[in-house]
Amino acid sequence: MAAIDVAIAVLPLAAIAYLMVGRFWPATRAMPVAWIVAIGAGYFGWNMSPTWIGAATINGFITAASILWIVFGAILLLYTLKRTGAFDAINQGFASISDDRRVQVVLLVFLMGSFIEGAAGFGTPAAIVGPLLVGLGFPPLAAVVVALTGNLMAITFGAVGTPLIIGMIDIFEDVDVISSAVAAQGMNIEGWVAEIAVWAASFHVIVGAALPFIGVAMMTRFFGEERSIKPALEVLPLTLFAWASFAVPYWATAYFLGPEFPGLIGAMVGLFVTVGALKAGFFHPDEDWDFADQSAWPDHWVGDIQPGESSSRDTHVAADGGTVQTMSLPRAWTPYALVAVLLVVTRVVDPVTTFLQSNLVLQWQSILGTSLSGSFATLYLPGAVFVAVHLLTIPIHGMDAKEIKGAWAETIEKVTPAVIALLFAVATVQIMLQSGTATGTDGMLIVLSDTMAGVAGGVYPFFASLVGALGAFLAGSNTVSDILFGTFQYGVADQIGFPHTIILGAQAVGGAIGNLIAVHNVVAALAVVGLVGQEGRVIRYELIPLAYYATMTGALTLLFGYVLFPGVF
User: Fold this and answer.
1) 52-104 tens-digit pLDDT
2) Helix-strand-coil percent breakdown of the chain, rounded to 5?
3) Is the separation of the CB atoms in 434 and 443 below 8 Å?
């Protein structure tokens, strides 16, 4: 393989890294440039015709539209519940169980954050949970640090499985070498990715046992008056119980139902079981733990928003956690209960699934005369469920026109920056993916995979999750990380004779790890608590859980692939 081929193949990824990391460009500016670089690499380096470049770009846009439909619906429902005060009601329902900040972190960050990730994804948990913690009196910087950490196990599955469904299924179906190899194993792509989901969940269940404890320990060590993890050790039984309550249904859901529901169902069951145990008097520490008086906090802990502030119509949260609340918890939870029911029905009841997959499906066969085809299943994609529940929430929560307008305005403001970034990110990857099919040679990602396999050899699987983390760090999205590097990871596994399914499970976990330090997520989380400018400080904190998770995942990847399960495809 010529060195020039490798140099040309890496150019689009190098452009993303340089512009977003070196120049701090937002994805909305960097991704269109990367797309132009990919066009140049495809045309001059791979001799792709303009027709194939155009077809790959259109196919990428269609895939991105599917992601954006899900994102739009999920965030619309999220901001609907913020406008009605449902989130403050849910938050205070948990906070009223205990005044202990450690218990509140387990409930709100690990469990509630995982639920929001499973329902909405795309960086929303930290942007929602952070302000809720500040409303309860947490230092804003502490709120952001723990909020970014807590929902890591759910990130792999994102908003109802989007990272794996869009990031792997839709991509792999367009890669002949992968779809053919999977078919030779007697599987289809959808079934195989469901197996990848189980492996990813297995990594998380093992490594994530320490996750709730890490969130609490980071709070007590860096923001507690004692500057020690000793207070975190006092709630270790609670953190392990919450992990088990989440992990068992989480893994079982991945195994029996696939990649759409693990985070959602795991969090719902975990919340029910853990809250029930706490209400029954179990796992409460002997003494409540709290932060020092605010007068003792360093200036950089607090920005424009003071702890204790809340802005919903139904709840006023005082700094001591006291509230005046008018929305009941069952009413507040009703929309997400409807989401869970509708998602299960539309995926499990065959007549309903068939109807949704057969109506209002926008298709483009043989795009520009090539072998590429794309489709947009308007009703079957989870975006339709979210929008439907938003419409039902209007009468359920008695929303007025101003609140409806506000929810839509906030949603559009949140989603708009993602449109350009996702359209061109996926188009860039499609050009790289289709460069081989268009010319009858090894494509750009295959060339890069071969090179990486030659350099790292048999130890590469240890670093597979870090490659996934790099993708999420660069693009700010687990889904885009899977799109960027899923085919690459498959190619490396092929070259070194390592189980493809296990290495892609590590990739899916890596995409979640990278979200800890994804600049977009960090900026968004800081912005909603009035602390923009503290990005570097937050990222340094988040390197601690990142190092733990990546090291443990890497070691498990080697153990699974070489020792315990070498026969897996």
Assistant:
1) 999 999 998 998 888 788 778 877 887 898 899 887 787 678 778 998 999 99
2) 75, 0, 25
3) yes
Long-range contacts of 9-13 (CB under 8 A, 24+ apart): 9/41, 9/45, 9/432, 9/444, 9/445, 9/447, 9/448, 10/448, 11/37, 11/38, 11/40, 11/41, 12/37, 12/38, 12/41, 12/428, 12/431, 12/432, 12/444, 13/448, 13/484
Q: Which tens digits make up the pLDDT trace of 482-536? A: 987 899 899 999 989 999 999 999 999 999 999 898 766 787 788 777 786 787 7
Kindly tell me if the per-residue pLDDT of 470 is higher than 70: yes
Rg (CA), the chain: 23
Task: Please say whether the beta carbons of 108 and 114 come within 8 A.
Answer: no
Q: Which amino acid is at 37?
A: V
Nearest Cα to Cα of residue 247 among 204, 193, 195: 204
Q: What amino acid occupies position 46?
A: W
- Is 142 in contact with 219 (CB distance < 8 Å)? yes
Instruction: Give the pLDDT of residue 312.
Output: 47
Residue 440: left if φ>0, alpha if ψ -120 to 50, beta else—which one? Answer: left
